[in-house]
Write a structure and sequence with these properties.
Blueprint lengths: L7 E5 L4 E4 L3 E2 L2 H5 L5 E2 L1 E3 L2 E7 L10 E6 L3 E10 L5 E3 L2 E6 L11 E8 L4 E5 L5 E4 L4 E8 H4 L5
Antiparallel strand pairs: 1-2, 1-8, 3-4, 5-6, 6-7, 8-9, 10-11, 10-14, 11-12, 12-13
Length: 155
Amino acid sequence: MGKDVREFRAYDKKEMALIYDQDLWLPDYLKKLGHTEYPVHISSEGIHYTLDCLSNHYENDWEEKVIAYIGFDIMQFTNLWDKKGKKIFCNDIIAFCPAGNLTNSSAKTLGRIQYSEQSGEWIIVNKDDQFLNQLDKVNQPEVIGNWFENAELLN
């Protein structure tokens, strides 16, 4: 199996925080034990972090790669950017003009980004997960938040 070149971020449900690839991160309980934070790698499997074992627990210091996925939502980058150059990820909430409407800001619609297994494409859904549009068919998309921290934007 080849290396995963897709880009991901994660949402830590317990800490209520977004984690991006290469952020310094370690589970809170390990930080409290005195372990050091190192840059993480996020893949479709979860968060890969380095655990630096403390010498008072083991004869020699050593590092171990661990994958954490329970309590996290992993979100993939869509390979699309919004009108301000910000990356659009799964579960982002965007404002957009439906296809055929190029600039009328009063006609902007809000929706959440999801991946459709059925069609194999990125789609925009409303708060009830009903289809609104295909992401690559809308005009002027703008990321205004994410589902975990700003779900009320879709109410």
